Write a sequence for this structure.
């Protein structure tokens, strides 16, 4: 039997995916941007090298948005009629959105810290910017895995 609680819980899962990914990205970008601004105050020519390091933690916000979009598509809010959900189905969708939500939050913050260290390295050794980016990308892979798990769980879910 469908009820309003199932739909509300499913929407909450999608909302948390977007919110937590966005919060993590904002924190991660904040760390890296603070360090980059310090470097740029002494050497504005390094802006291009530092921009990527500052922007990297922002991708988790996009992943959270994709997770939320997938939830809204699954339950019919986007592109169809709303699917009546039982409480159990709502909880399934909620928990299917959690890998991208939690991985996005945590990995964006840690990626911001790694990218901050990369900014400090670029300040002293500008030719090593690519190495700093690789370390940041390694952290990114876990956000991507969270997104993939959420997408697979949402797509394979029977409603």
């Amino acid at each position: 039997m469908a009820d309003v609680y199932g739909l509300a819980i499913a929407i909450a899962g999608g909302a948390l995916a977007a919110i937590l990914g966005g919060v993590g990205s904002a924190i991660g970008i904040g760390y890296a941007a603070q360090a980059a601004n310090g470097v740029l105050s002494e050497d504005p020519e390094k802006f291009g090298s530092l921009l990527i390091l500052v922007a990297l933690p922002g991708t988790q916000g996009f992943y959270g948005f994709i997770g939320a979009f997938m939830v809204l598509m699954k339950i019919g809010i986007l592109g169809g009629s709303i699917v009546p959900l039982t409480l159990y189905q709502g909880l399934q969708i909620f928990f299917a959105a959690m890998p991208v939500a939690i991985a996005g939050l945590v990995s964006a913050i840690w990626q911001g810290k790694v990218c901050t260290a990369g900014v400090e390295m670029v300040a002293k050794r500008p030719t090593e910017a690519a190495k700093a980016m690789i370390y940041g990308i390694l952290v990114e892979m876990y956000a991507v895995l969270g997104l993939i798990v959420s997408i697979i769980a949402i797509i394979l879910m029977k409603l």
About this structure: The chain has one domain: 4-156.
